[in-house]
Write a structure and sequence with these properties.
8-stranded mixed sheet; cytoplasm; 10% strand; disordered N terminus; hydrolase; ATPase_ArsA/GET3; elongated; 8 strands
Length: 408
């Protein structure tokens, strides 16, 4: 089986699906992230459901403070892995990776090491939270699951989380230099500790453990065969902007990001545009149909418009015939006119939305088509909740052949 790296080296066109990710059985961590409201939770839950059919055991872990995996799976979860209903190998848990809010993995604020570290690295904002993250990820690394899918918080929080290993290493290095610079460091430490005696060996061991945890997380992040990040976006300005920012930061941290899910895409057929049989059988059907999509005037040419139907109703009522003969037909024409106006309004709004999307879809294509698996997902009429709907969504994620619909 070829890896994603080999696909890039071969220079082949990348499939518009997550199939290559699903088939990379060495992956242990799969992060799913993007701007809030773009479908991160739906994507992560669908991935977990699909992976459960391929892997020995799967954990879906939410680090988003606004946990939504329970809503998607129609089940309540907490900070302990819980078996998902209907599965024997899929577990889910909801936990905040912040030290200040996490309960299970919170760095203990006891007298001694916790207090000392807090005081000594107070000059580095965020180090306390980074220590908590190291504790969390150290626990995650020991969990007995073949793959863990992370449903992350919106972009800003996620980027801070991914930068914690480097921040923690910086803080620990500073702490080490302080120890070597001041001969009386342990006396100061003991004064902080109060009545509790802190041994130098214990202090060094805990610092060493934290550094090892940070190093282990960083090594996992930087290994594309074990860790990857799936970016989710929608074709709107803020989402496309945050996706570009996210991918740049992932690159800076050495984290693989080979797949982009573009959610809530309006395809020509979603707006009632006509698609010929040859277009439907083509891999570029969306673009071909968009190029020959009908205009508002051509729709009017295909049949009577609202104005014509209203005129017909007036003509029927003006005929020198009894009301019982012309009335039903006139009312039917009036009803048809109202319905046509509603359809024309809806079609117009859909077209405006498609034109707006096409600008950002073109940007996504220009930026990522050559180097990423770009997976367009159509806008759906219903919420994706429950295992059955999530499996349908997973089928769209793993089925390629769709292309981003461009403007006509």
């Amino acid at each position: 089986m070829s890896t994603r790296i080999e696909e890039f080296e071969d220079g082949e066109e990348l499939e518009s699906s997550l199939q290559s990710l699903l088939e990379t059985d060495t992956l242990r961590w799969i992060f799913v992230g993007g701007k809030g409201g773009v479908g991160k939770t739906t994507t992560s839950c669908a991935l977990a459901v699909e992976l459960a059919a391929r892997r020995e055991s799967v954990l879906l872990l939410s680090t988003d403070p606004a946990h939504n995996i329970g809503d998607a799976l129609r089940q309540k979860f907490n900070n302990t892995p819980t078996l998902v209903d209907g599965f024997s190998n899929l577990y889910a848990m909801e936990i905040d990776a912040s030290i200040n809010e996490s309960h299970e993995f919170k760095l203990k604020q006891e007298e001694g090491f916790g207090k000392i570290m807090k005081d000594l690295v107070s000059a580095f904002p965020g180090v306390d939270e980074a220590m908590g993250f190291a504790e969390l990820m150290q626990s995650v690394q020991t969990m007995p699951y073949s793959v863990i899918v992370f449903d992350t918080a919106p972009t800003g929080h996620t980027l801070r989380l991914l930068g914690f290993p480097a921040l923690l290493e910086k803080g620990l290095s500073k702490f080490g230099s302080m120890q070597s610079s001041f001969g009386g460091i342990m006396q100061m430490v003991q004064s902080f500790a109060g009545d509790q005696q802190v041994q130098e060996e214990d202090m060094q061991q805990k610092v060493s453990n934290l550094r090892a945890a940070s190093t282990g997380v960083r090594e996992m992040f930087e290994d594309p065969t074990r860790c990857t990040f799936v970016c989710v976006c929608i074709p709107e300005f803020l989402s496309v902007y945050e996706t570009e920012r996210l991918i740049q930061e992932l690159c800076k941290h050495g984290i693989d990001s080979s797949h982009i899910v573009v959610n809530q895409v309006l395809f020509p057929e979603d707006c009632g545009e006509l698609i010929s049989p040859e277009d439907a059988s083509s891999s570029s059907s969306a673009s071909a149909a968009a190029a020959r999509a009908p205009t508002a005037s051509s729709l009017e040419d295909d049949g009577p418009g609202a104005a014509e139907l209203e005129a017909l109703a007036e003509q029927l009522r003006s005929l020198p015939l009894p009301e019982e003969q012309t009335g039903p037909m006139a009312r039917l024409a009036e009803q048809a006119a109202r319905r046509v106006r509603e359809l024309e309004k809806g079609w117009s709004m859909c077209q405006k939305k498609r034109r707006m999307q096409s600008k950002y879809l073109a940007q996504i294509s220009d930026l990522y088509k050559e180097d990423f698996h770009v997976v367009p997902i159509p806008m759906l009429g219903d919420e994706v909740r429950g295992v059955d709907r999530l499996q349908e969504f997973a089928n769209m994620l793993k089925t390629g052949g769709r292309v981003l619909p461009m403007s006509r």
